[in-house]
Design goal:
Helices cover about 55% and strands about 0% of the residues. It is elongated. It contains 5 helices and no strands. The protein is an all-alpha fold and about 120 residues long. α1 runs antiparallel to α3. The longest helix has 28 residues.
Length: about 120
């Protein structure tokens, strides 16, 4: 019983991925009927469609249905708010906006002497 349940669950999980293959198998099994009756281009034999338009339309319908189902499932998901942070209010007083003294900025270039400059010297001659 457990093995049957496991296979049933596995099949139900894999069914959406196997669905396009079922449509393709149906197309190959009934290719003559689809080409003669269901094909959109059966009046124009120069296109040599042979029902491929029907297959493309059915696969597109399946993809659109899958997209609609996914969209509806995503839209219907409940939103869980896990973290709630209190809103903090900032108050700026006018005396903080004026600086008491102007900041003095200066730029000083530091001279870098690498340790390799002491090791690599030309020989004294």
């Amino acid at each position: 019983m457990r093995v049957f349940t496991a296979y049933l669950l596995l099949f139900s999980i894999m069914l959406p991925t196997v669905s396009p293959w079922g449509t393709i198998a149906y197309f190959h099994l009934n290719r003559d009927y689809i080409a003669k009756v269901l094909c959109e281009n059966r009046q124009r034999p120069e296109l040599k469609c042979n029902g491929k338009c029907y297959l493309a339309r059915k696969l597109k319908e399946q993809e659109d249905n899958k997209d609609k189902e996914t969209t509806s499932q995503v839209q219907n998901l409940p939103v869980l708010q896990l973290f709630n942070q209190p809103v903090t209010l900032f108050k700026f007083s006018p005396d903080l906006l004026h600086l008491k003294e102007k900041p003095g900025f200066f730029y000083q270039l530091a001279v870098y002497l690498s340790p390799a400059s002491r090791l690599l010297r030309p020989p004294r001659g």
